[in-house]
Amino acid sequence: MKVSIITVCYNSAATIRDKIQSFFLQDYPNIEYIIVDGASKDNTLNIVNEYQDRIATVISEPDKGLYDAMNKGIELATGDVVGILNSDDFFTSESSVSTLIAGFNREDIDAVYSDLVYVQAENTDKITRLYSSKVFKKSLMKFGIMLPHPTFYTKKDVYKKCGLYKLDYRVAADFEFIARCIVNGVVINRVPAITVKMREGGISSSGLMWRIHQNMEVVRACKENGIKTNLALVALKLPYKLFTLFTLFTLFTLFTLLTRKFVKV
Fold it and tell me: How far is CA 211 from the centre of its chain?
């Protein structure tokens, strides 16, 4: 299968090179890269142009926001499978794409997803939280919990069946799209691996008001797709996030203790 990977960016000079380099390290052979820039005013395009002969498509023009840019990239994609590597994301290893595509191991599978980790913005070797997809199931969407969207790779035909990202959402169009896919019978398969790193930050986690707005959009997305919920239920996802932080801290502590015990200094 041919894979199209889309990076959407705007004024991303500080991080765009990481994304491009992690793409070119991938060992999956049949792959194309599409960069959709929102008319950046910094050095983003100069960096992109350094790699232009190896990038399938680069466009730079004003857009109506993140999801409009994603839609542009999807429409340009020529692959059988489409994935999105956003401006704060990069692959964990050279086999990330191969690992994800291996999840299409049955004819009926329409999409795959995996785990990701959050890392510090200034130190991407420092993991701050595990975003595990192991517990994901449709019933959890009423709590605002979904699979990690940066690891979601879907056959392009799914976009023809379910439509593109809705532009009247500011921060939760990805949640709404996943919900729409599920209620439309899209068959998804989990790949038990960490394939993507995401820098901490981003619009959906940049402050209390944005979090409230995001939760309101999640409630709306659920209702539009026949999933019963309310703001109180969606607010319960906070304990889940705290649990993942505690789990990561516990695993790190155990690893450190075992290392000290068995490794001679």
Answer: 18
Separation CA 189–CA 108 (nearest Å): 10
Residues 6+ positions from 237 with CB-CB distance below 8 Å: 143, 144, 145
Say if CB 37 and CB 20 are below 8 A apart. Answer: no
Write out the chain in H/E/C secondary structure.
CCEEEEEEECCCCCCHHHHHHHHHCCCCCCEEEEEEECCCCCCHHHHHHCCHHHCCEEEECCCCCHHHHHHHHHHHCCCCEEEECCCCEEECCCCHHHHHHCCCCCCCCCEEEEEEEEECCCCCCCEEEEECCCCCCHHHHHHCCCCCHHHCEEEHHHHHHHCCCCCCCCCCHHHHHHHHHHHCCCCEEEEEEEEEEEECCCHHHCCHHHHHHHHHHHHHHHHHCCCCCCHHHHHCHHHHHHHHHHHHHHHHHHHHHHHHHHCCC
CA-to-CA dists, residue 86 to 69, 89, 125, 142, 225, angstroms: 11, 5, 18, 25, 25
Beta pairing class for 3-9 and 31-37: parallel
| CA dist., res. 259 & res. 193, Å (int) | 23
* 205 has a pLDDT exceeding 70: no
What pLDDT sits at residue 213? Answer: 85
pTM of the model: 0.86
pLDDT, one tens digit per residue, over 212-262 is 888 999 999 999 999 999 988 888 766 555 555 554 445 445 544 554 544
Report pLDDT digits (tens) over 149-191.
Answer: 999 999 999 999 999 999 999 999 999 999 999 999 999 999 9
User: How confident is the model over 65-88, as a mean pLDDT?
Assistant: 96
